[in-house]
Design brief:
The chain is mainly α. It is built from 2 helices and no strands.
């Protein structure tokens, strides 16, 4: 935006909204795909209802390997 708010054109507003909105949407989309894979892996790894420690360690390992 290069002008005061009252003088901002519709095209400027569209660009501002598109950058802000679509930036979040693309980020959420990428993160959701990753977390779906993590959840599926955790469900395959889970051996029992009381095995929360191992499940948590596996989740941390998967997330760390993705970074």
């Amino acid at each position: 935006m290069t002008a005061p708010t009252a003088q901002t054109t519709i095209e400027d507003w569209e660009r501002i909204i598109n950058v802000n909105l679509w930036g979040y949407i693309y980020t959420i989309n990428a993160v959701m795909v990753f977390f779906q894979d993590v959840v599926q892996e955790l469900l395959r790894f889970s051996t029992g209802k009381n095995d929360y420690y191992r499940l948590g360690m596996r989740a941390a390992s998967l997330i760390q390997s993705a970074l």
